[in-house]
Amino acid sequence: MDPSCNLSVNGFYSLLTRELDELDQGFLSSNFMSIQFLSKVISTLQSFYSQLTTLVQKLDLPVGEKWLDEYMDESSRLWEACHVLKSSVLGMEKYHSSGTNITSSLDGFHPHMNAQVLRQVIRAIMGCHREIIGLEDDNKSLIETRAEALSLQFEGDNNNMVMTGQSSSFNSFNGFRGVLHAMRNVNSLLLMILFSGLVYCRPASWQGAAGQCEAVSASAFMVSMARLQQRVANEMEQIGGQSISASEGIMLYEFRQAKIAMEQLRVELESTVADDRHDQLEIDFPDKVDRLKSCFGLLSCGVESTIEQLDDFFDEIVEGRKKLLGMSSRQSHR
């Protein structure tokens, strides 16, 4: 039986808790900010939105009241956030296309490639590196303009009241307002994770969010939310400890691995040209090329699957808005 058939307000809070705990376990079992983990984050966002739409249909809410505006505001925020995410992911396509062209140029490699050919490959790698810098600069601007307007902060002052009934405001509309408040907080956390992985990460934002989330953990879903948030913040701090700028930029695991593999290949080629030892390339060179091919293959597949997921989520948002607008319209004509 579809669990949404018996979904209630309390059931929705339980759903948030359960899904956040599953994300927490997924974080522990996958590479940091990997496609696998971020795919689960997107799926969780979509599931929460779908279940919220289902819940609203069951609450028999009054026509023409503010609850619909509040629902529409949150769905619009998700819509805009997904556009920012998709814009960044599409930007990665040019990068992995350039990387794939580099590896293709090395197909049929033989150990006696002359210095001129190797220098051409080095220049192509440097051009690809400039594309990375440009992409991350563009994404940083996205964070500072469009993403900032999405208000990805935790609304902590009243979170304890949601579950304890201390606020009549959160109990209004049959508990819908409290549910939506919880949903905004959870969405903010999940969007922060996605932006850090796919757009641009600023470690300071995670340090600030950690304190906010820990301070308001009376309810079960907030405990789960704080735990997941703290794990991400701790990982950011650990990566940042390795290098001053290591935790800045696009944190997607497959993206970072491709950058590392390309840099290793560049160092190998430059050393080879400088030492005039082209006949020794067969020792390490093919392995580095194969690793770079593998990295860009994984990145390409990840980009494609992420775009498909975001497009599905766009459809889900549109469908949810249509359902509730249609429901309100029918009720108003009764």
Short summary:
By secondary structure, the chain is mostly helical.
Describe this protein with a few key phrases.
mainly alpha; disordered N terminus; elongated; 334 residues; 0% strand
Overall description:
With 334 residues, this protein is mainly α. It has one domain (3-98, 135-250, 303-332). The protein is built from eleven helices and no strands. It has helices at residues 9-29, 35-58, 66-105, 115-147, 159-164, 168-171, 176-198, 203-214, 220-242, 253-275, 285-332. It is elongated, with a radius of gyration of 24 Å. The protein starts with 8 loop residues before the first helix and ends with a helix. The model is unreliable at 1-5 and 156-168 (pLDDT under 50).
List how many beta strands DSSP finds: 0
- Amount of beta strand: under 5%
Determine Rg (CA atoms, Å): 24 Å
- The amount of helix comes to over 70%
- Termini separation: 32 Å
Mean pLDDT: 82
What's the structural blueprint in terms of helices and strands?
Blueprint: H1 9-29, H2 35-58, H3 66-105, H4 115-147, H5 159-164, H6 168-171, H7 176-198, H8 203-214, H9 220-242, H10 253-275, H11 285-332
Helix pairs in contact: 1-2, 1-7, 1-9, 2-7, 2-11, 3-4, 3-7, 3-11, 4-10, 7-9, 8-9, 10-11
